[in-house]
Amino acid sequence: MKKIAIPFSFLILSISLTAQTKQWTLQECVNHALENNISVKQSELDLELTEADKLEAIGNFLPSLNANASASKNTGLSLNPTNNQLENTTFGSASAAINVGLTLFDGLRNVRQLQRSKLSELAAQYRLDKMKDDIALAVANSYLQVLLNKANLAVAKSQNIVTLEQLDRTNNLVDAGVLPRGDLLEIKATDAAEKQRIAVAENTVKISLISLAQLLLIKDYSNFDIADEEYKIIDGGIADKDVSEIIESAKETRSEVKIAQKNVDLAKKDLQISRGAYYPTLSAFFGYNTRYADNDPLNREFIDQLYLNDGIGYGLQLNVPIFNGFTVRSNVKRNKINLKNTEYQLEQAQLDLESNVYQAYVDANGALKAYEAATVALESQELAYQYAKDRYDVGLTNAFDFSQSKLRYDNAKIEENRTKFEYIFKLKVLELYFGVPANELKF
Fold first, then answer.
1. Which residues are paired to 121 by β-bridges?
2. Which CATH number fits the domain that encloses residue 121?
3. Where are the alpha helices (DSSP H) in 176-254?
4. Label partner for 208 (CA 20 to 30 A): which of 25, 48, 322, 367?
5. How many separate domains does the chain show?
6. Membrane-spanning regions, if any (predicted)?
């Protein structure tokens, strides 16, 4: 029994470890979010609703077909449907009818309703595209934040390894009487502070991973992790372009302006539809009906009565609007105001987009300068740290000065990490404005 249980436990352990080794790449995170995000699903449902609106608009061109039937029992003075005579008796009757109607002209409202449904579908598609871009960008930002926190944690751990080495060496030198005991206490204090920073950094990594998992609607926080890849700064030439070129591209490709433009087109179409109510409506109709009564004077059978008592009616109907309590006029006025409002919204969307592109352009350039400055500062602090380390190793400086130099070097590495990932993100925002699809961004 034990021989069976041991391999089985190893199998369970192997499966558990395999489940825990899943590490998500950025592309996997983006794809998962686009497939599962609730806001994206709601936008997809909105797009499906426009299909129903289009189907209804197409149906307005088709004839209407309706059938009805009734059966009743009459007692007392009632009209016999088979001979149109009043009879004071009890009898049963039945009737059936089929009616066909077709709108021939309604002020072109049916035509414009179909045009509106197509515009509404485009607007819904643009809203879905924008939602996907926003979600992809949010996931990328959250993902890069995890990478930044992990990089900072790696810095803290690597520097603590150096501190532990110095602690061991200083302890030996203090025991040998070469260094004062104060240097050992200073190194121990540095080690304690670094371990505290490591604990904080580990907690920060966990919190950022949970935030990313929540964004992806993943509930298994404990087994969620991302791939520790080296993300480099990949510039496809966007930073060298003139801001005016990026603005023009954004106006042509960004969904914000397209949505606002489609809202204007929809408002124009609504105005045309409302004005169509001023015109007469012409429709055609055709009807077939038949009837039966069980007190037929000739005692005809049910089928014979349906055949002999039938009739048809057909013709044209013209409905001319004359006065409807200003309903049409007020509706037209509301749509005129709505059109003007959407035109203002389009103008504002264009201004906002231009402002946002300028801001993104300035942010990207500022982030690049900050990263370049941080890189230079890191190089300088690294040289200063190495110099302080060499002096400390030969006893030319004390532990306090060495720990301060090491702290400045640590902070410089953390700042270099921060500015690097911030520049990567700002660069990708600028690429999105230039028209690069979110799923084609290079990291």
1. none
2. 1.20.1600.10
3. 181-215, 243-253
4. 367
5. 1
6. none
- Domain hosting residue 245, numbered range: 22-278+288-318+326-440
- For residue 175, what are its two tokens? 């025991």
Residue 239 falls inside a structural domain: yes
pLDDT digits (tens, 9 = 90+) for 186-234: 888 888 988 998 999 999 999 999 999 999 988 888 889 988 777 777 6
Residue 233 identity (one-letter amino acid): I
Q: How many residues does the chain have?
A: 443
| Radius of gyration from C-alpha coordinates of the chain | 39
Dump pLDDT digits (tens) for 86-127: 878 888 889 999 999 999 999 899 999 999 999 999 999 999
Query: Residue 201's closest CA among 141, 162, 160?
Result: 160
> Is residue 2 in a domain?
no
Q: Read off the DSSP letter of residue 398.
A: -
User: In angstroms, rounded to a whole number, what is the distance separating the alpha carbons of residues 159 and 152?
Assistant: 11
Residues sharing a CB contact under 8 Å with residue 114, sequence separation 6 or more, in sequence order: 54, 57, 58, 60, 61
Phi, psi of 265 (to 5 degrees): -60, -40
Cβ neighbourhood burial of 299 (10 Å; 0-12, 13-18, 19+): exposed
Between CA 307 and CA 50 the distance in angstroms is 46
Residues 435/253, Cβ–Cβ less than 8 Å: yes
Distance from C-alpha of 106 to C-alpha of 389, rounded to nearest angstrom: 90
Q: What is the rounded distance in angstroms from the CA atom of residue 26 to the CA atom of residue 48?
A: 29
234 within some domain: yes
Strand stretches in 295-344, DSSP E: 311-319
Residue 15 domain flag: no
Amino acid letter at 238?
A: I
With H, G, I as helix, E, B as strand and everything else as coil, classify residue 24: strand
Count of other CB atoms within 10 angstroms of residue 4? 8
String of b and e for 220-250 (b: at least 16 CB within 10 Å)? eeeebbbeeeeeeeebeebbeeeeeebbebb
Q: What is the mean pLDDT of residues 296-318?
A: 87
CA distances from 275 to 115, 134, 327, 334, 342 (A): 15, 38, 11, 11, 18
CA-to-CA separations, 438 to 31, 41, 131, 173, 262, in angstroms, rounded: 10, 17, 11, 58, 22
**Which residue has 């089929």 as its token pair?**
98
* pTM given for the model: 0.78
Residues 6+ apart with CB under 8 A from 20: 223
